[in-house]
């Protein structure tokens, strides 16, 4: 299968890759109505690619049944309005089953979460992704890379075996390492998505990224779109104006090892009356002071 087969998927990745939250009802289950409403809000706001079962969607706190539900809700609500990149992971059989389920329901791509196994060898990383990619040759596959030790040559090796590996969500917080990794793997061979969202997007775009992930987009789609429009036109000063606008919000998300990464997004949505603030352990809700600060930031974005 030639890479030309995946032209539409490659184009879709070069954008604001939204990672929707998974809203919970008062009884703790997935709030399907709120979920659909939030997805519609993203689509109506101009978002063209969604990642159900990403980390902002609390992937690791969802049951297998809930992950399937979130995939199905997203694909149903999206229709042909956007591309769907489904997050998969855990052990190989589980990831393969999730990828096949995504294919069956009409997703175009899967994102393979960074393995959380404590003993990840570079060869094992290739084997893990290869097993998943080979199970769904019709789908575009996007490894989510958080491992600073992984060599770019390993990604090239994976893509040699699996031509459906078409993009990379690169989430190592080091712009110089990203620039080197992308060139070692093949800068033009993959679509490079800045996997640490808006705070890292300008520096990663300067090194070759053409898309970035976003959790903030749940709250303010127009803010994220403003940034990518500036980056696409080479207006780094304009992109940094957006960066300054979102800086405090993203600092709150990143504090203490990103303990409140999802919590801050859901708190902002709750302040706008869009969903409950509830998150699942090991995340937790914010203090009253932090809630007030997040609400003030969201209100200031003129959403």
Q: What does it look like?
A:
It is a single chain. 49% of the residues lie in helices and 11% in strands. The longest helix has 23 residues, at 236-258. The chain has helices spanning 7-13, 32-44, 64-78, 92-105, 122-135, 152-161, 175-185, 201-206, 221-232, 236-258, 261-271, 288-300, and strands at 16-18, 49-50, 83-88, 109-112, 140-145, 167-170, 191-194, 211-214. By secondary structure, it is of the alpha/beta class. The model has no long low-confidence stretch (mean pLDDT 97). Keywords: Lyase.
The share of residues in helices is: 40-55%
Unreliable residue runs: none
Number of E-state strands: 8
Q: How many helices does DSSP assign? A: 12
Strand order of the largest sheet: 1-8-7-6-5-4-3-2
**Distance from first to last alpha carbon:** 43 Å
Q: Nearest-angstrom radius of gyration? A: 18 Å
Q: Which structural class fits the helix and strand makeup?
A: alpha/beta
Global morphology:
globular
Largest sheet: 8 strands, parallel
H/E series: HEHEHEHEHEHEHEHEHHHH
Mean pLDDT: 97
Strand content: 5-15%
Family: Belongs to the DapA family.
Organism: Streptomyces longisporus
InterPro entries: Aldolase_TIM, DapA-like
Keywords: Lyase
